[in-house]
Amino acid sequence: HHPREITATVATAKAIAKGEVYVVFQPHTYSRTKLLLREFINALGQIKNLVIYKTYAARESYDEEGSGKRLSQEVQNSLYADNVYALKTWLKTTVKEGDVVLFLGAGDIYYAAQYIVKR
To answer: What global pTM score does this model have?
Structure first.
């Protein structure tokens, strides 16, 4: 869930994947996203198939400047999903057999991934 880790993970997935690589990224906390905004924009901007999921707030109150929605607006060619159903719909209509989907983040994205994989 750090920009350098995202870059390394996506590069590795591209090197071994036979199909397309899709990334679902969930920022972790508004303050951290705001603090690393430029780095996130640079790292995520290199990803062709990207969905940014709502920020995992943890202990924080909503802050537009550090939100996943704001991050998605800054990263060209990214989509934003604020709920698991929107995420599931996009993946179901986009991903094909043989493609790889990476769920990256440190929040409840794990549960979203579990739900989607089961369906």
So the answer is: 0.95
